[in-house]
Write a structure and sequence with these properties.
Elements (H helix, E strand, L loop, with lengths): L3 E5 L13 E6 L5 E5 L8 H19 L11 H13 L14
Helix pairs in contact: 1-2
Length: about 100
């Protein structure tokens, strides 16, 4: 037996609701009933993924900005190399799937 039953209150002839339909959700275990509007699940687009990756990259660059002028910092060379990878990342075939690492 299913734990929940969903009824389409907007159009009972449609088993699968569409964006904006009013639905009734019945919890068969507890007997509770919830009525709400159905919203299609949001699927991230490639543009969304690219933007998130760029925001991550920008935060990593910003987090290492203070090291650039500190030539005596113990990780100065590695940080500069990492920052170069970060800057070049959007133009690589790995973008946005594989984040640069040091």
């Amino acid at each position: 037996m299913k734990n929940i039953t969903i009824e389409n209150l907007t159009d009972s002839s449609r088993q699968n609701p569409i964006q904006g339909d009013k639905i009734k959700i019945i919890n068969n275990t507890t007997g509770s009933i919830t009525i709400k509007s159905y919203n299609e699940p949001y699927v991230k687009t490639q543009d969304d993924l690219n933007l998130e990756a760029r925001e991550w990259r920008n935060s990593k660059l910003g987090g290492t900005d203070y090291i650039v002028p500190l030539t005596d910092h113990p990780d100065h060379g590695a940080t500069l190399a990492y920052r170069a990878l970060l800057r070049d990342w959007p133009s690589t075939s790995d973008f946005p799937d594989t984040k640069p690492t040091i």
